[in-house]
Amino acid sequence: MARQYFFKSVSLCLLMVFVNACQRDQQEGERLPDRVSYNFHIRPILTDRCFSCHGPDEAARKADLRLDLGESVYNARTNEGLKILVAGKASKSMLWERINSSDAELTMPPVDSKLTLSPHEKQLIKKWIEQGALFEPHWAFQPVGKPKIPKSVKKGKLEPIDAYIQEKLDEQNLTFAEEADRITLLRRLYFDLTGIGPSPLEIATFLADKDSDVYARLVDSLLTATAFAERMATDWLDIARYADSQGMHSDGWRSMYPWRDWVIDAFKKNMPFDQFILEQLSGDLLPHPSTDQLVATGFNRNHTTTAEGGVVDEEFKKEYAHDRVATTATAFLGLTRNVQSAMIINMTRSARRTTTSFLDFLIRWMKWA
After folding, report:
1. What is the reported pTM?
2. Which of the four pLDDT bands, split at 50, 70 and 90, describes residue 338?
3. Is residue 76 within 8 Å of residue 83, measured between CB atoms?
């Protein structure tokens, strides 16, 4: 038995070494993008390797240096007066000098952190600095805009979305896979849009139809199907923490399925997203709201509740408000703003202020309602 465990452990270690080597070889084979994006390329690296010592946690911060505050790092200096980051000049930036150093005493991340940067990641940071070290606000706070189709991609028969895939494949020296056969395409379509595979009859009907637009017609047909609406609604129900039970104490029955049916119907009717949001957040505040618009506001009532007789009402009123803050932030702001008391302590001053203000608003609204 001990021998089996030994060989399994050795095999697992060898597999991990092999996977890491493959990942390293893949990264080394990647070419650098024409334009390095802070949000897309640099922020993930700094978050994973640097923010633990140079981020928002004041207790863990080293050298009184923060790299998570954007452009304020331009003013940061070492004890010797050297600038941490000089836009456009990697050779004069201590940030680049330290991550590129081969000296174990100087290299960043520190050796004892067990964190490393691959050669590709180092070159990404260097190119970002040389291109001006432009910081970008968090993606959740940026307006949605229509990106430009990559110019470097051959037009050919590519759809616009394929052009972006082609650009990324080129960066990694990869090519498109061969086009799938008709049955595989059909199965992918059904699973993607409905979550359910096609029946034998649907497969036979599709294969027998030789029209050039058969695939497009099938897509249009599935987009109007109830199964597609249910598939789309699934993710939204998860975000809104839908359940037909209370979630606490005896977890008793709670009738929320009319709101679920409203969501499914909204997707089936292809309701505009702004209307979809408006009716769920404030359907009851609209002039002469319909029954459906009142049902839509069930979004705000999906939080866990308790029917226990011994609870303190004011305590759970705050718990419910906490839940609504976190859910609203996740669904509409692209933020995981869980406002448990232990986390509020570690928030930045501005984040704490906006969170508690929102929380106070919800509590006052609940009292009024």
Report:
1. 0.67
2. low
3. yes
Which one-letter amino acid corresponds to residue 32?
L
Residues 6+ apart with CB under 8 A from 217: 211
Lowest mean pLDDT among 134-143, 199-208, 209-218: 134-143
User: What is the distance between the alpha carbons of residues 8 and 235, in angstroms, rounded to a whole number?
Assistant: 39
Strand partners of residue 247: 305
Do residues 209 and 178 lie in contact, with contact meaning Cβ atoms separated by under 8 Å? no
Nearest to 50 by CA among 132, 2, 7, 109: 109
The answer to whether 268 and 233 are in contact (CB under 8 A) is no
Of 39, 38, 32, 13, the closest CA to residue 118 belongs to: 32
Mean pLDDT for all residues in the chain: 82
Give the DSSP per-residue string, 330-355.
IIIIS------HHHHHHS-HHHHHHH
Question: CA 149, CA 126: separation in Å to the nearest integer?
Answer: 26
With a CB cutoff of 8 Å and minimum separation 6, the contacts of 206 are: 182, 186, 198, 214, 218
Task: Give the residue, 361 or 171, on which the prediction is more confident.
Answer: 171
Q: Quote the CA–CA distance of 237 and 252 in Å, as a whole number.
A: 19
Q: φ, ψ for residue 305 (rounded to 5)?
A: -130, 165
Which residue's structure tokens are 């978050």?
47
Look at the block and give the residue holding tokens 């702004």.
Answer: 274
CB-count burial class (<10 Å; 0-12, 13-18, 19+) for 316: middle
